[in-house]
Recover the amino acids of this structure.
């Protein structure tokens, strides 16, 4: 039951993303030939007035097929006939919808469940934080030079330190102070983690305004963390075997989130939605970001990039993405991430 809820939740993110492309295609007068949820063999389909709506076997993606998307078609309703700006609006609409979806979910979550702030409520005696001079009431502004938007920014910074000193910039009664702290490796629920020894303050019954503010801070934080994770993965500083999860891991974590209640599942889906948006906006062939780069080149040069080049680049990019997806899925099965 929980796994089914997880799969449905993950499918919802795909629907939200593709719905963004679909809506903006319609707004720009582009004919949509197919709206598909999932990939692979067709399970169900329905032919509308001009669009075929399909459900496919594997819930790992989806697509909106537009007239003239893959080749130039002399038709005023084709994707290829529209200006670069109009085509960019269609391409970016998927990621935009994922971000909007996350903003709504986060706001509802924080309004009903409250949230933690980066203000210290209590310092553990004889801990690294205590010895450094951190005090209750201090608000953490930066960690190792990076701006702090949420407590998770601090927690991740501490874990990435691997036990080396971390530098905190805090606000203490309007005065900024710099503190140097050496995290300590401790046992926490069966895992080895780095801690410095303090607790965060919490807003238990926030107003809608406070919830919205927390939502934007959370979103900015997650976008930054996602890009940072991708950078660590590319540079080899992130362990692919133990720290990277694919579709199988996402479904497992979603299932566990579903067991914890609808709010926990909703928060996790919003978290994945932000990650999905960021990943799609990467300037890589076959992704929305890659398409946007091509269209920006056309907009700046006022010359269309040859279809053969676009097709070849996107084909290679698509094959690389499929290969990466297969590798990550196999890795999920052989070396599952410890939850």
């Amino acid at each position: 039951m929980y796994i089914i809820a997880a799969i449905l939740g993950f499918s919802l993110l795909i629907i939200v993303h593709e719905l963004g492309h679909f809506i903006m295609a319609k707004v720009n007068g582009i004919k949509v030939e197919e709206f598909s949820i999932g990939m692979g063999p067709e399970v169900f389909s329905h032919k509308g007035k001009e669009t075929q709506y399909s459900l496919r076997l594997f819930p790992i993606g989806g697509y909106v097929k537009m007239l003239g998307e893959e080749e130039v078609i002399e038709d005023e309703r084709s994707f290829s006939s529209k200006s670069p700006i109009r085509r960019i609006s269609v391409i970016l609409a998927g990621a935009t919808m994922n971000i909007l979806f996350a903003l709504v979910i986060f706001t509802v979550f924080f309004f009903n469940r409250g949230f933690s702030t980066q203000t210290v409520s209590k310092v553990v005696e004889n801990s690294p934080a205590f010895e450094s001079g951190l005090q209750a009431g201090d608000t953490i502004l930066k960690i190792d030079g990076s701006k702090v938007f949420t407590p998770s920014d601090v927690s991740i910074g501490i874990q990435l330190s691997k036990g080396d000193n971390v530098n905190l910039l805090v606000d203490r009664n309007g005065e900024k102070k710099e503190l140097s702290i050496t995290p300590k490796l401790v046992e926490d629920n069966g895992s080895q983690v780095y801690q410095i020894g303090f607790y965060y303050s919490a807003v238990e019954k926030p107003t809608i305004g406070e919830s919205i503010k927390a939502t934007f801070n959370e979103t900015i934080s997650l976008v930054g963390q996602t890009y940072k994770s991708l950078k660590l993965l590319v540079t080899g500083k992130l362990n692919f075997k133990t720290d990277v999860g694919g579709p199988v891991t996402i479904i497992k974590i979603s299932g566990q989130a579903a067991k914890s209640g609808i709010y926990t599942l909703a928060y996790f889906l919003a978290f994945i939605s932000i990650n999905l948006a960021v990943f799609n906006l990467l300037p890589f062939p076959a992704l929305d970001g890659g398409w946007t780069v091509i269209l920006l080149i056309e907009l700046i040069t006022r010359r269309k990039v040859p279809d053969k080049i676009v097709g070849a680049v996107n084909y290679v990019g698509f094959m690389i993405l499929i290969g990466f997806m297969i590798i990550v899925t196999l890795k999920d099965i052989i070396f599952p991430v410890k939850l």
User: Anything to note?
Assistant: The chain has two domains: 2-111+271-334, 115-203. Residues 115-203 form a domain with the Pdz3 Domain fold (CATH 2.30.42.10).
